[in-house]
């Protein structure tokens, strides 16, 4: 299976070289041709190559699982990035790929169907999990959302266009005929041609070929002709239909006014890196009062992110607020705002909570994050307990620091340290270092240097260093801020180098230290003379892998940044 996957990766990688360097949407397909993931890209060629290029081994474990099932990729070019955003959202709703974000309450997306029958019916239908529509075959209109005007007017539409509601044509008129909601095609009271004239008018309105206003103009003309022809009963029926439509339009107008009063929502996201999941909570505030709360979660696969979630969520709700407050900036924020603005028909702004947001909004976002923490902590605790038992640690590793060295070539070498608290990235404790004292590619010495600088003692306190820049070093006086476990990216050599310097540092010389070697995911620890091998399904291993991968990402980003700065300096000389 692995050989087949490698061969397939090579084939797709070669195919991606012919992809255009333009914005668009790509569709990943399984062996049987089923679409299993849909993504957008500013540059299709670069994005696809990034999946199957040289860095393929650094992807998240869930993304790796996705790529193992990809046997072909199609693409659709768009004019710009915003069009790619909107097309991706529409295609996800249409195909519902298994690896894309699927909202837990996605059943609220409803469609209207005009059935393919001799005397068609107007039905409300939904997609099954496989993407098929329930019920008899027919022409589909939508999607609409529960609470939207069209969904609420199904009953009105049936009455206005005299569409039958019976499952099977009875042999005698039912109550709907006697209350003038149906013309009784069951007993031949109306010809198929006359009945289909109403069905066609309804279809035109649902597909927006005609508007309700134009239809009302035609109804008034029919009413006048019936009255002039002394067909007073028919004129009265048409008049009743017009009154129903007028009442409907008034209710729609009031509905829009009510929705527009709620002009801000709060969206908080928290990542559970152990299980590669994201937890999202949304609070809606109406006239200063929190009225609604929704909780979602999705897998961190490929490009699934806050940005993708926001577009999927807000493209399926009855109304989009003017201001959306978030605790983290989404990717492609400007393009996302433009996309939501187009959908909402009014300006939509995505605002990251800050001191400028005011104490009340900050308090609401803190409330969201606290609630999300309870979901993530409940999931991570068993894995941390398992890790404690396997490594024979003297305390639960709630706080773990991970070190990595990034030295692409010999000109620039950097180090990084990331921290997870209860399995959640604590980015305020991330630190990066430019190697100072080590020349050449001596990974052991570099590990020793960055561990020393991270925990060096000054004035009797534990000191954190981010590389010696003014304003970036903090003193930590409380033992609660010390890690419970230190993880080193590397083998026994890197571990021994780190332990050597830790033994000389006050307050951290008693903290457990381990390392993880990437090739076979071997864990080196003082608790075992031989390397520890964990099951690939082990939640404990996923914690360590997540830490290692995040440290690698953080250090590599710093290395690339420094190289770019050096290149700019050379060009400016």
CATH architecture of the domain at 392-572: 2-Layer Sandwich
Please compute the radius of gyration using only Cα atoms. Answer: 31 Å
How does the major sheet shape up? 8 strands, mixed
Helical content stands at 40-55%
What does this structure look like?
- It is a single chain.
- The protein is of the alpha+beta class.
- 41% of the residues lie in helices and 22% in strands.
- It has helices at residues 2-16, 44-52, 61-68, 81-95, 149-152, 154-160, 175-178, 192-206, 212-228, 232-260, 306-314, 333-344, 359-391, 443-455, 492-502, 539-572; strands spanning 24-29, 35-41, 72-77, 109-115, 122-125, 138-145, 264-272, 277-286, 289-299, 323-326, 349-352, 399-406, 414-421, 424-425, 431-434, 457-458, 461-464, 474-476, 485-489, 512-517, 522-525, 528-533.
- A hairpin with a 6-residue loop joins strand 4 (109-115) and strand 5 (122-125).
Summarize the entry for a quick read.
The protein has 573 residues and is of the alpha+beta class. Helices cover 41% and strands 22% of the residues. A hairpin with a 4-residue loop joins β7 and β8.
How are the secondary structure elements laid out?
Layout: H1 2-16, E1 24-29, E2 35-41, H2 44-52, H3 61-68, E3 72-77, H4 81-95, E4 109-115, E5 122-125, E6 138-145, H5 149-152, H6 154-160, H7 175-178, H8 192-206, H9 212-228, H10 232-260, E7 264-272, E8 277-286, E9 289-299, H11 306-314, E10 323-326, H12 333-344, E11 349-352, H13 359-391, E12 399-406, E13 414-421, E14 424-425, E15 431-434, H14 443-455, E16 457-458, E17 461-464, E18 474-476, E19 485-489, H15 492-502, E20 512-517, E21 522-525, E22 528-533, H16 539-572
Parallel strand pairs: 7-10, 10-11, 12-19, 19-20
Antiparallel strand pairs: 1-2, 1-3, 4-5, 4-6, 7-8, 8-9, 12-13, 13-14, 13-15, 16-17, 17-18, 20-21, 21-22
Helix pairs in contact: 1-2, 4-12, 9-10, 11-12, 13-16, 14-15
């Amino acid at each position: 299976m692995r050989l087949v996957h490698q061969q397939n990766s090579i084939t797709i990688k070669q195919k991606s070289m012919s992809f255009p360097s333009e914005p668009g949407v790509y569709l990943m397909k399984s062996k049987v041709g089923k679409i299993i993931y849909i993504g957008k890209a500013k540059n299709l060629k670069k994005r696809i190559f990034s999946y199957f290029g040289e860095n393929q081994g650094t992807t998240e474990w869930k993304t790796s699982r996705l790529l193992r099932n990809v046997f072909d990729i199609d693409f659709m070019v768009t004019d710009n990035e915003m069009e790619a955003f909107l097309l991706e959202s529409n295609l996800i709703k249409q195909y519902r790929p298994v690896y894309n974000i699927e909202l837990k309450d996605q059943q609220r997306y409803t469609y209207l169907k005009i059935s393919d029958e001799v005397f068609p019916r107007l039905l409300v239908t939904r997609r099954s999990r496989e993407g098929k529509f329930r019920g008899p075959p027919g022409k589909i209109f939508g999607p609409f959302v529960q609470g939207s005007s069209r969904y609420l007017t199904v009953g009105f539409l049936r009455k206005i266009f005299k569409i039958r509601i019976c499952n099977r044509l009875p042999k005698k008129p039912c109550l709907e005929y006697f209350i003038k909601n149906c013309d009784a095609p069951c007993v031949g009271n109306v010809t198929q041609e006359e009945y289909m004239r109403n069905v066609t008018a309804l279809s035109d309105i649902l597909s927006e070929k005609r508007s309700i206003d134009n239809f009302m103009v035609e109804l008034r003309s029919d009413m006048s002709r019936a009255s002039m022809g002394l067909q007073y009963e028919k004129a009265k029926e048409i008049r009743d239909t017009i009154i129903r439509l007028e009442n409907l339009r008034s209710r729609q107008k009031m509905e829009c006014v009510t929705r527009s009063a709620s002009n801000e929502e709060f969206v908080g996201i928290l990542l559970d890196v152990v299980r590669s999941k994201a937890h999202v909570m949304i609070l809606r505030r109406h006239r200063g009062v929190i009225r609604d709360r929704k909780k979602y979660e999705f897998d961190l696969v490929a490009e699934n992110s806050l940005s993708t979630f926001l577009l999927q969520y807000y493209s399926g709700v009855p109304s989009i607020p003017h201001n959306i407050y978030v605790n983290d900036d989404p990717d492609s924020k400007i393009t996302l705002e433009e996309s939501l603005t187009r959908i909402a028909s009014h300006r939509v702004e995505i605002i990251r909570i800050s001191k400028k947001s005011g104490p009340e909004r900050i308090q609401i976002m803190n409330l969201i994050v606290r609630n999300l923490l309870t979901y993530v902590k409940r999931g991570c605790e068993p894995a941390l307990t398992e890790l404690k038992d396997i490594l024979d640690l003297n305390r639960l590793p709630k706080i773990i620091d991970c070190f990595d060295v990034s030295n692409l070539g010999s000109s620039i070498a950097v180090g990084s340290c990331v921290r997870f608290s209860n399995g959640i990235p604590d980015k305020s404790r991330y630190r990066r270092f430019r190697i100072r004292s080590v020349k050449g590619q001596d990974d052991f010495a570099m590990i020793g240097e960055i561990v020393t600088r991270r925990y060096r003692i000054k004035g009797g306190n534990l000191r954190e260093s981010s590389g010696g820049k003014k304003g970036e070093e903090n003193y930590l006086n409380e033992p609660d801020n010390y890690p419970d476990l230190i993880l080193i990216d590397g083998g026994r050599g890197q571990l021994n180098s780190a332990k050597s310097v830790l033994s000389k540092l006050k307050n951290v010389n008693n903290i457990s230290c381990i390392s993880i070697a990437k090739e076979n995911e071997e864990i080196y620890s003082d608790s075992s003379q031989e390397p520890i091998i964990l099951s690939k399904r082990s939640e404990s291993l996923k914690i360590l892998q997540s830490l290692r991968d995040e440290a690698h990402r953080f250090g590599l980003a710093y290395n690339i940044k420094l190289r770019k700065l050096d290149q700019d300096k050379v060009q400016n000389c």
